[in-house]
């Protein structure tokens, strides 16, 4: 939180962040972003929402993975709060809003590889959680 409080937004670099949602064939949920896109500047926090609904007549536990495109931008995309990699239980017909609180690290603007990047896509895929299942973490640190 100290790092977030001391960040200086880079106002002259606006990035469009788009949102994608998929479900694996193992789960029958309805899952979608509540906004198609938002505009952010590096060093400024942003909040987006996804909506999930279990349209079945039985409780279902889901778990999501995510990726950031372009892949090289992933190291600068920092989620403060996210529903990924945590089991989400939805009862029959239950619908929930799931927030994603994030920021793009201001160091993004210093990276020559990011010079022409003005669009980042955050994509989630939900799977039905199985007992003892472990999902892989993204490859970047």
Automatic annotation (TrEMBL):
Keyword rRNA-binding present in the record's keywords: the answer is no
Record key words, sorted: Membrane, Transmembrane, Transmembrane helix
* Quaternary structure (record): Interacts with CNNM4/ACDP4. Interacts with RANBP2.
- Cellular component GO terms, alphabetical: mitochondrial inner membrane
Which domain of life does the UniProt lineage start with? Eukaryota
Question: How the protein sits in the membrane?
Answer: Single-pass membrane protein
The cross-references to PANTHER family, in alphabetical order and at most eight, read: CYTOCHROME C OXIDASE ASSEMBLY PROTEIN COX11, MITOCHONDRIAL-RELATED, CYTOCHROME C OXIDASE ASSEMBLY PROTEIN COX11-RELATED
Has keyword Disulfide bond? no
Gene Ontology MF annotations: copper ion binding
Main location group:
mitochondrion
Q: What is this protein called?
A: Cytochrome c oxidase assembly protein COX11, mitochondrial
Q: What does this protein do?
A: Exerts its effect at some terminal stage of cytochrome c oxidase synthesis, probably by being involved in the insertion of the copper B into subunit I.
InterPro entries the record matches:
CtaG/Cox11_dom_sf, Cyt_c_oxidase_assmbl_CtaG
Task: State where the protein is found.
Answer: Mitochondrion inner membrane
């Amino acid at each position: 939180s100290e790092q977030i409080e001391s960040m200086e937004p880079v106002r002259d670099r606006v990035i469009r962040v788009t949102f994608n949602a998929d479900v694996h064939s193992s789960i029958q949920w309805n899952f979608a972003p509540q906004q198609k896109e938002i505009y952010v500047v590096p060093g400024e926090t942003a909040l987006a929402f996804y909506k999930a609904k279990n349209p079945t007549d039985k409780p279902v536990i889901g778990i999501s993975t995510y990726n950031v495109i372009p892949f090289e931008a992933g190291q600068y995309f920092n989620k403060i709060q996210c529903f990924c990699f945590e089991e989400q239980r939805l009862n029959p017909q239950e619908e929930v809003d799931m927030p994603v609180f994030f920021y793009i690290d201001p160091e993004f603007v210093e990276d020559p590889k990011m010079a022409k990047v003005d669009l980042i896509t955050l994509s989630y895929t939900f799977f039905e959680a199985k007992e003892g299942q472990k999902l892989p973490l993204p490859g970047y640190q």
